[in-house]
Specification:
Blueprint lengths: L16 H58 L3 H5 L2 E8 L5 E3 H15 L4 E13 L2 E11 L8 E11 L2 E10 L5
Parallel strand pairs: 1-6
Antiparallel strand pairs: 1-2, 3-4, 4-5, 5-6
């Protein structure tokens, strides 16, 4: 970026020292405007990099949350599954029921684990969108091996993930199986 330092002289300027003073004042004005512009440009570009870096770190933390959930599920640890949710989080299951709050999530998963002792979950996140720095909507696919008879063993999931006291947790998860016409 180049700064233009040409003198700014009023059309009513007189000759002599008054003109020189006006030229100097005009040059300083242009210089100060250039410095302000440069400072703003540096701040904006720096904040963009910070947001991108923060988003990258948060995306990694959300990936770790997903892995923690799958690990807890596959270890049949209902309490650890529920710890992946906020205190008021909820989990929508294939039947359409909603398990609201951690105690219901623990009870629902405990029941599932006792009825399906060999079930193994896998999946992956397909999309993620930061709605705000502390709010993410994610979409992915899931698969359960050795799951319950009569239910789909694969499908899609959507989640709302929030940052609470520096930790990413699920506010809501909805699992569903695509309907084929």
């Amino acid at each position: 970026m180049s700064l233009h330092l040409s003198p700014q002289v009023s059309p009513h300027a007189d000759s002599g020292s008054g003109t020189r003073r006006r030229r100097l004042t005009g040059s300083l004005l242009v210089l100060s405007r250039g410095i302000v512009f440069l400072a703003v440009a540096i701040l904006v570009s720096g904040s963009t990099r910070t947001v991108a870096a923060d988003e990258s770190a948060d995306a990694e933390a959300i990936g770790e949350l997903n892995e923690r959930y799958v690990r807890a599920f596959n270890e049949r640890q209902a309490e650890k599954v529920a710890d992946c949710f906020t205190k008021v989080g909820d989990y929508g299951i294939l039947t359409g029921a909603i398990l609201s709050k951690r105690p219901a999530i623990v009870q629902g998963h405990s029941s599932f684990f006792s009825s399906n002792p060999k079930a193994k979950l896998s999946g992956k996140q397909l999309q993620r969108r930061f709605v705000r720095p502390d709010l993410v909507v994610a979409h992915g696919e899931w698969q359960v091996e050795n799951g319950p008879e009569g239910y789909p063993h694969r499908g899609l999931w959507d989640s709302v993930v929030v940052k609470v006291d520096g930790r990413w947790l699920y506010e809501a998860i909805r699992i569903y199986a695509p309907v084929r016409p």
